[in-house]
């Protein structure tokens, strides 16, 4: 598999600044399954490592919680492969500029089997910032290469957090 090159910090910062110019107040219509958002999150439990700036594909939304696939929690190559898979499944919607369409029930087994489970996160709705950017699906590959994560409690990379999550999952199975 060809290694995908992550943007340099300088390139990433330039693109993030450009992306943040699109920041606006998000409505309930923006926070629907299939939309990808870049926003701010203030976790309730500050002792746990979390991403303050999630790049999240919304999987399910309830009155209290939102289940997302946070791309920051997986290594870049895996992130790009997953996005390409999602795009292949949604070519028609992307061409029509519609939100991505998929069933979390159908996606969940594939995510677990291929090792993407650590990127699935449950967020408390009231702790998700109402300001953010709704990412057009045609820009997902471009956005996925950015270093936009802001992990708390140490300077962890997506690769390190992914490895730690996999290790915890293996221990929990025992």
What's this model, at a glance?
This protein is of the alpha+beta class and 174 residues long. The protein has helices at 9-20, 76-89, 91-95, 104-113, 140-144, 158-173, and strands at 24-25, 36-41, 55-61, 65-70, 120-124, 128-135. It is built from 6 helices and 6 strands.
Brief descriptors of the model:
174 residues, six-stranded antiparallel sheet
Give unreliable regions as ranges. none
What proportion strand? 15-25%
* Main β-sheet description: 6 strands, antiparallel
Tally of alpha and pi helices: 6
Mean pLDDT: 85
Mass-distribution shape = globular
How many domains is the backbone divided into? 1
- N-to-C CA distance: 32 Å
| Order of H and E elements | HEEEEHHHEEHH
Structural class: alpha+beta
User: What integer value in Å does the Rg equal?
Assistant: 15 Å
Sequence of strands across the biggest β-sheet: 1-6-2-3-4-5
Beta strands, count: 6
What is the helix fraction of residues, given as a range?
25-40%
